[in-house]
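To whoever is on call:

I kicked off a structure prediction for a single chain this morning and the downstream step that reads the tokens threw a length-mismatch warning. I double-checked the sequence; it's 281 residues and nothing unusual in it as far as I can see. Pasting both halves so you can look.
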Amino acid sequence: MSQPAKTSPRATAASDNPESAAGSKAAAQRLKMRRELAAAAMELFATKGYEATTVDEIAAAAGVARRTFFRHFRSKEEAIFPDHDDTLTRAEAVLDVAPAHEHPLDTVCRGIKEVMKMYAASPAVSVERYRLTREVPALREREIASVARYERLFTRYLLAHFDETEPHDGNDDPLLAEVAASAVVTAHNHVLRRWLRSGGQGDVEAQLDHAFAIVRKTFGTGIGAGRALTATPAPAAAPAAAVRAQDEVLVAVARTDAPLEEVMRTIEEALRGTQPPGAVS
């Protein structure tokens, strides 16, 4: 007797929710068409030049009508960046599901890695796109506009995750959030440009992690793990080394990060100060 065929959980979920399955299929088809239009645009820009290429020619090269082009892009310069909308959505999803214990700057760094994944998925296309954006001012402006969208997203996220236990002078939170978000994006773009100039060669992820470590070290203070969490106030900072003498007992207190020579010098000075008159050190 033949056994009934097993249905995968994904197929079951799709059959249970046909609207969701249809939506996913439509989104995939939309992205496919956007990429085909972008590929046609890039090929024409490379052969004919950006200014000489028309929207009608891009649509024809992709095998679609002019109106189909404008259902996906508002202009020919927008067609050169078909994935930024979807990448921005993925970056936002990273922020939305971040674990509560993760430092917000680390979350933002993971979010912008979605952009690097987009470029790294097609190195040859990315290198050619970079060449075009350097040559065509309109494309550079479009890329700058895309970068600004990521900065706004990350600024909003960081502003909502300041540690309220940290002392603040005035209302500097918006400033720090914007500067930190800009630093993450700038670090990413610096590594990305260097990778593109090398022809898409090298371990770009390792370079990115190194750049993010610098940003984290510079801007990590003041941005905590979220307003919903409570933190125990840190004790007041002790001097590098302090000494208290009572009777014949000498008590020394030192920070764990105090240099050893500083601690020893403080103890020696205290010993000299507690010796009875006439004693020889």
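Update from on-call: the warning came from a stale cache, not from the record. Cleared it. Sanity check on the structure: The longest strand covers residues 241-246.
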